[in-house]
Every structure is written in structure tokens, then in C-alpha cells.
Amino acid sequence: MKSIIIIGGGPAGTSAAIVLLKQGYDVTLVDKSSFPRDKLCGGLLTGRAKRVYQEVFETDFEQSFETLATGAGVFNGSKLVNEFNQSSEWFLTKRVDFDYFLLKKAQGQGLKTYLNDKVTKLDLKTKTLNLKSGIFLTYDYLIGADGVNSFVAKQLFGSSFDQNKIGFALEVELPKGTHKYAQPSIHFNVVNWGYGWVFPKKHSDTFGIVGLHRLNAKLKDQFQEFHKGLYGTHYKGRIKGHYIPFGDFRKVPGRENVLLAGDAAGLVDALTGEGIAFAMESGAFAAQAIIQSNSTGKEALYHYKESYQTLAKELRIANRLAYFLYSSWFNRIFLKILPRSKPLLQMHLDLMNEKMTYSQFRNSLIRLALRKTFRIRRFS
Coil, strand, or helix at residue 264? Predict the structure, then answer.
């Protein structure tokens, strides 16, 4: 039986584990943290995340989230400029609960785990790794699902991410009811090349911002001004901060029988902020590639590239759209269109709920922008 090790116990790692365990493989997962553990993340689960979750875990999706929202508001700073209600579903969770829930599902299927134990050495030639506890492990296949600061990616490529293309996020949990707007809200013009969010949940309101790191040297000041603009005062308390993939996904997601998934591969949509669905989907794809490799004798990366490219194609389009959306000249056009455009918001929702492909969204956005800006009815 082939030995498979997964590093990272988030949605990518547990999704990979579940797919492999269902096929009878012996799987070991290593994570530097003990669970439940917190994770900086807005905690928004889209329709895409729901679909992937149901395909991989084959259990009731209702157990995985704590709050259901059916609308959202879009703000220019602290000013509401457009909203939609009863048009789609958004599922809100806390990652401390969601990730632990998925891990327990995998453990229930027979996953072996080394938690609160950090990988200190990875030898790609001998296919061995050492843990801080002194444990020595060997593998035939390895999945690096160990987040944006991926140790596996660093061993493969020399660095976990490109400093010029990475995002950085700040986030806090506010007392429930702090945010007077009852639905999830997205805020533009609070940070350079990024956005802010407030997601009302069962026991708290998740408040945060994300922006391209190299363009936001004073991100904490921007965070405080965003908070003051909404609530009248600066935030007093500890602020969580973390690097976030912001469109800079890996063109080659691994080497031979070592694969990267989720944030370790940079799989986050810079346009929508979607990361959880891509994590689960890429984790499942990596697992399927290992199963195929074990059958064909070809390297796992050979099989992974094919399915990975379906994600990369979508993220490539998202990156191009984000480039225009966050650029100052287009942002001004966008914010002029937004207050008068229900179709734009509906398109965004349809994209996140897989009722529209990324290509269709791009083409519809171009037509809409041209109609609104130049007053022409058709673009072909």
C-alpha cells in the first residue's frame, strides 16, 4: 500500500484525505496546530463551496455553517450604494468551527493525524520528513495543503509566494449587532487594490480588510479609518493579520509526486475573495490525481495538471477582471455604474453560485460597462 502524507488540516487537506480514504488508501495528515484552531478568513461559503462540499463529503451541508444570508450590500466606503435581497443564498461560518468539523469527518473515516506537530525537515530526494516531536515519516505521495506560508512550496520552489503579488488581510470579531446593516456587506475604497467586509454571524460580526501588500504600507491605519467610518471610533483590541493569496496562483502546482492544493498553491479568486471552494476542489483533484497515478504509473503531477488547469483558467480571468476593477480609473467607472445597476450585483452572485461561468461574467461585464458608460445597447 502506498504511503500518502498530507501537510495541512484545512479544507484542502481534509478534502484530499476524504477522497483517498473512500478508496481505501492509508492516509496520514500533519498539522502544526491543535484543533479547533482559529484561521483568518471572512468565512463566506458560496454556492460553489456548497456544491464541492456535497460532492466530497457526501453529508448534509446544513451542518457546516452557522448563518444563512439571502442578500448583501455593496458600499463605497461607509455609504451604501446598492443592495440585493432574496436573490441568492450566502452561507456564513467561522473557520475555527468549519475546519474542525471537516477534520473530524476525515478522522471518522480513518484518517491518522499528527496535530500540534510541525514539519521541521522535508527531503524530496529520499521522500522523508521529520516532525518537531522527533517522529520520522516516509511517503510515496505528498500533498502540501499547508496554507499561504507553505513549507512544502518553499522546499519545492524556494519561496512560499511572490512578495510583489501577495495580499495581506486584517480581521477582528465584533460583538453581535455592532454592524447595523443586517446582511453581509462588501466595502470598496477602504484600501488600495482590495476591499473590506462585514459578515454578521450567529454570535459576532466578522470585520476585515484585504489589499495588495506592496500597495498598503499603512494597512492598520486604513483598517482603523474603515472601522471609524462605520462605527465612529477606532477599534480597541487585538487585530489578526495574515498574508492572503490574491490571484498569484502557481502555474505548476508541484513536482513529480508532490502536489500543492488550496492556499499553498495560491488558489484564491482576487475578484470575489473565494478561497474555500477552490481549496476543497483542488484538494479533491490532488487526491484523484494520486489515485490515477497509482493506477497508471505516471507521476501524480501529470494527472493533477489537467484538472488543476480548469481552476487556473477561471482564476486567470478573475485576475484580469480584478486588475481593471481595482485600478483607479476603472474603479471610478465601476462606482458610477454600481448605484444604478441591479444586473451587476446579480451577475456577481450568479458567478459565485455557478449560475454563470467566469467567461460569461467577463463578457457580460464588458457589455454592461459599455452600455452604461457610452450609452450603446450592444457589444459584439
Answer: helix
Determine contact, residues 259/300, Cβ cutoff 8 Å: yes
Cell numbers standing for residue 318: 478573475
CATH class of 3-66+94-161+246-318: alpha beta
Q: Are 229 and 202 in contact (CB under 8 A)?
A: no
Edge-to-edge strands, sheet with 119-123: 119-123, 128-131, 136-138
pLDDT digit string, tens, across residues 55-95: 999 888 888 888 888 888 888 899 888 887 766 778 999 99
* pLDDT tens by residue, 286-314: 999 999 999 999 999 999 999 999 999 99
Which pairing describes strands 136-138 and 141-144: parallel, antiparallel, or unpaired? unpaired
* Phi, psi (degrees; rounded to nearest 5) at 214: -70, -15
Q: What is the pTM of this model?
A: 0.91
User: Is domain 167-243 classified as CATH 1.10.10.10?
Assistant: no
Q: Which residues pair with 91 in a beta bridge?
A: 45, 68
For residues 284 and 308, give the distance between their C-alpha atoms in angstroms, rounded to a whole number: 10
- Distance set, CA 90 to CA 114, 162, 202, 235 (Å): 33, 31, 14, 27
Over the stretch 210-261, which tens digit does the pLDDT of each residue have?
A: 999 999 999 999 999 999 999 999 999 999 999 999 888 999 999 999 999 9
What residues does 240 pair with on adjacent strands? Answer: 171
> Cα dihedral sign for 163, 166, 170, 171?
negative
Task: Give the domain ranges of the chain.
Answer: 3-66+94-161+246-318, 167-243, 327-374
Instruction: Encode pLDDT of 90-125 as tens digits.
Output: 899 999 999 999 999 999 999 999 999 999 999 999
